[in-house]
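Good morning,

Attaching, inline, the backbone tokens for the sequence recovery test we're adding to the shared suite. The designed sequence is right after.
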């Protein structure tokens, strides 16, 4: 009886181990034949930039990445600038982790500009966004985190490759210093921000960013990311006012206004500036910045 039980347990362990090996083989094979994680590619792209001093650093989500051309900002200001935008999956937590990395590497920053999506203020605190950035220096933890965050995308890769015979979807993920665009939104796209969904704890990591700015004498500014004009309603403005109240309490310099973009100016979501309008949007934010800096 004992021998049968041992044999059963051994077979079960071997089966589980075989599944584990097969799973990891498929993950590695996917990478070898062309799979790229959009999230990981973006993180790799941004973290690699932490190699010298910059006068101006931009931190935020995808609303920043699609809205500001840091090269143009450098030309306008005559000061070296760097856009370190991530996505809403990282939010303020990822931005804080990036700022910590910059400071830990003894890189000097004089000005920090934060641009973040209004929608983020009704989401949960993205603790995993902080952990994801911090695990980049540990191969094992990075790999575990990579699998955790990309298992669905890897599954979709094999579906596209085997069923749809298409591998192009995973090529050229970083374009113009940020994620490539998806399909443009329809003209009737809309969304309503609910006041009762405002997360009063959302500023947890933003407070940490502000504290770092104070500690290291970094001038810190906050701007709302742009939104599609269909979202520019009284109800949504009430939600934005609630955000402004929070920002005022935090003591950060911020612009209470938001840019409403028409369909020609908007991109693949109601929060993304179109590629053709990015330089114009950069100039708009630069003028906002100059006004705030004078106050």
């Amino acid at each position: 009886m004992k021998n049968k039980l041992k044999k059963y347990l051994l077979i079960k362990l071997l089966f589980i181990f075989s599944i584990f090996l097969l799973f990891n083989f498929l993950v590695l094979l996917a990478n070898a034949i062309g799979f790229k994680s959009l999230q990981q590619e973006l993180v790799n792209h941004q973290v690699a930039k932490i190699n010298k001093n910059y006068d101006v650093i931009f931190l935020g989500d995808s609303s920043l990445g699609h809205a500001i051309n840091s090269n143009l900002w450098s030309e306008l200001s005559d000061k070296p600038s760097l856009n370190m935008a991530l996505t809403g999956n990282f939010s303020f937590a990822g931005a804080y982790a990036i700022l910590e990395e910059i400071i830990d590497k003894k890189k000097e920053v004089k000005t920090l500009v934060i641009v973040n999506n209004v929608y983020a203020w009704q989401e949960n605190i993205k603790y995993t966004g902080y952990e994801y950035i911090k695990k980049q220096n540990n191969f094992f933890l990075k790999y575990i985190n990579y699998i955790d965050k990309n298992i669905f995308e890897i599954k979709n890769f094999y579906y596209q490759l085997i069923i749809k015979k298409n591998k192009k979807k995973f090529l050229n993920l970083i374009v113009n210093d940020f994620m490539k665009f998806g399909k443009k939104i329809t003209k009737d796209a809309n969304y309503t921000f609910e006041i009762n969904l405002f997360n009063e704890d959302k500023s947890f990591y933003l407070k940490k960013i502000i504290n770092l700015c104070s500690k290291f004498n970094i001038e810190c500014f906050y701007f709302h990311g742009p939104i599609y004009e269909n979202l520019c309603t009284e109800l949504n403005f009430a939600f934005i006012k609630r955000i402004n109240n929070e920002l005022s309490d935090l003591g950060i310099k911020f612009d209470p206004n938001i840019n409403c973009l028409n369909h020609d100016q908007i991109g693949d979501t109601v929060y993304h500036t179109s590629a053709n309008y990015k330089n114009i949007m950069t100039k708009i934010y630069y003028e906002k910045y100059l006004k705030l800096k004078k106050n």
